[in-house]
Amino acid sequence: MVSSDASRTDAVLPKTIVPSGIDDPVERARAELKAALAAIEVKGNLPRRAAEATERGVARAKTFAERSPVAAAAAAVSVAAAVGVAIWGVARIVSR
């Protein structure tokens, strides 16, 4: 049976961390395996990582736009122009 202190510790720790204070070698090995598998899942889940990075980028862009709307508009125009030039360049290369 798990004590209330251990369950509170598990709730606070990320799932990729092995909790300290495990004396039983079998329980320790299970906890290490569970943490290793969780770390592999976190590291290998590329769609989730991409979605989180996109969310962070959108949040930064919104903050930047709120602080400096003119600079944000200029950045948006610059990015749109760069994408347009890149597409034009690729189309020109393909058409030759």
Automatic annotation (TrEMBL):
Keywords: Membrane, Transmembrane, Transmembrane helix. The chain crosses the membrane at residues 70-91. The keyword Membrane applies. It comes from the Bacteria. This is DUF3618 domain-containing protein.
